[in-house]
Amino acid sequence: MALIVQKYGGTSMGSTERIAQVAKRVAKWARAGHQVVVVPSAMSGETNRLLGLAKELAPGRLTPDYYRELDMLASTGEQVSVGLLSIALQAEGQPAISYAGWQVPIRTTSAYTKARIESIDDAKVRADLNAGKVVIITGFQGIDEAGNITTLGRGGSDTSAVAVAAALKADECLIFTDVDGIYTTDPRVVPEARRMPSISFEEMLEMASLGSKVLQIRSVEFAGKYRVPVRVLSSFTPWDIDVALEAQSGTLITFEEDEQMEHAVVSGIAFNRDEAKISVFGVPDRPGIAYQILGAVADANVEVDVIIQNVSKDGKTDFSFTVPHPELARTMELLKDKVVPQLGAAGVVGDPRICKVSIVGIGMRSHAGVAAKMFRTLSEEGINIQMISTSEIKTSVVIDEKYMELAVRALHRAFELDMPATA
Ligand code: ASP
Ligand code: MG
Q1: Segment (H or E) for 347
Q2: Which of 152, 206, 372, 373 has the greatest count of CB atoms below 10 A from its CB?
């Protein structure tokens, strides 16, 4: 017998028919002798619908009081899901009980719409499990110290599930979703992309932060911190497939680096179009420049990603960095109004038509020349590299958005990711 946490995403919970399928799948695991805790998302589209209603009534409101009510509102999507799933399980003859985050309770900080989980009380859940029930807990939400309902940020049910698994010391956290695992890259861009049977935690963290949308990044961080074994698998297989088979499917996020295993040098390719580039020209090259530019940007709560500063010529230099797309206009305004005049810089331009393409692999630690191969591959395709950033296990380039698919395909081929793994 194992203790398993299962998370089902919005598409998996998208209709009463789909919820009935989820109930059958969960009941199958319970009948096989496992203790099961389920953490579902809201039905697909529901969170957007709820937030849309708020926007209709109060477009552009940004006060803390408003954010409190947004969480009150958005949290109801998951409450509907847990109620329905529990009803479906009981109809299957499987004893089940549902809880909203605040009933468990799942304690969080008070940062509405982006709260962080602080602790989870497992007493009630354990008692129910020991009484033979499946326990269903709302994803995406908790309660702060003052008793306010909070939510964890979009996609936050992944994090709820991993956190619940950590609190219960579950044997595995299964993230059931509409894809059947983690792929070498997005199969919609490269049809030859392959599912990876396993991926190291560090690679998954890079992939998630680089724009692979399969798991919310915070859930991966949580899994790393508490060493929760997480598996990503499909909820679109027939519900009655063999439990033992299902338990081996998808992609497992692993922690131990198996010494015996020959790692592929590059395991995956991530890309995203969600960033924009800003360049400040003719900046006087003296100490404190990066701080003056990026300090102002950070004070405005804009997250900066890739940064480059050129060597100076005649005491002047150019300074470029990327910011999230939706923050481009605001950041440009800030720079034009304040920073550029203060610095005596020549000017600033913003370019929304860029994308970031990254190769990721822990094998890069022990292999030289990987980045060079990436640059050669791109040059052979005539793709100009605008910016480069590296870490121990990844190399990212910023290029013109129109070459994104070409770049991803060429790199996927060059690093032989379409070949079956040999190890
Ligand atoms: N329902 C929330 C959202 O749409 C949380 C989740 O699905 O993970 O963002
Ligand atoms: Mg999701």
Answers
A1: strand 347-351
A2: 152
Do 400 and 357 form a contact (C-beta atoms < 8 A)?
A: no
Which atom from ligand 1 is nearest to the alpha carbon of 154? 9
Model pTM greater than 0.85? yes
User: Please, what are the domains in the chain?
Assistant: 3-256 (3.40.1160.10), 268-414 (3.30.2130.10)
Task: Evaluate: CB of 156 within 6 angstroms of ligand 1.
Answer: yes
Closest ligand 1 atom, CA of 42?
1
How far apart are the CA of 11 and the centre of ligand 2, in A?
9
How remote is the C-alpha of 2 from its chain's centroid?
27
Please list the pLDDT of the chain residue by residue as tens digits (423 residues). Answer: 899 999 999 999 999 999 999 999 999 999 999 999 999 999 999 999 999 999 999 988 888 899 999 999 999 999 999 999 999 999 999 999 999 999 999 999 999 999 999 999 999 999 999 999 999 999 999 999 999 999 999 999 999 999 999 999 999 999 999 899 999 999 999 999 999 999 999 999 999 888 777 899 999 999 999 999 999 999 999 999 999 999 999 999 998 765 445 667 899 999 999 999 999 999 998 888 899 999 999 999 899 999 998 888 888 999 999 999 999 999 999 999 999 999 899 999 999 999 999 999 998 888 889 999 999 999 999 999 999 999 999 999 999 999 999 999 999 999 999 886 554
**Alpha-carbon span 243 to 247, nearest angstrom:** 6
Q: Is the CB of 42 under 6 A from ligand 1?
A: yes
CB 54 within 8 A of CB 16: no
Calculate how far, in angstroms, residue 148's C-alpha sits from the geometric centre of ligand 1.
19
Among the atoms of ligand 1, which is closest to the Cα of residue 156? 8
Residue 216 CA: which ligand 1 atom is closest?
8
- 3-state SS, residue 287: coil
Q: Which residues pair with 313 in a beta bridge?
A: 316
- Please give the distance, rounded to the nearest whole angstrom, from the Cα atom of residue 13 to the centre of ligand 1: 11
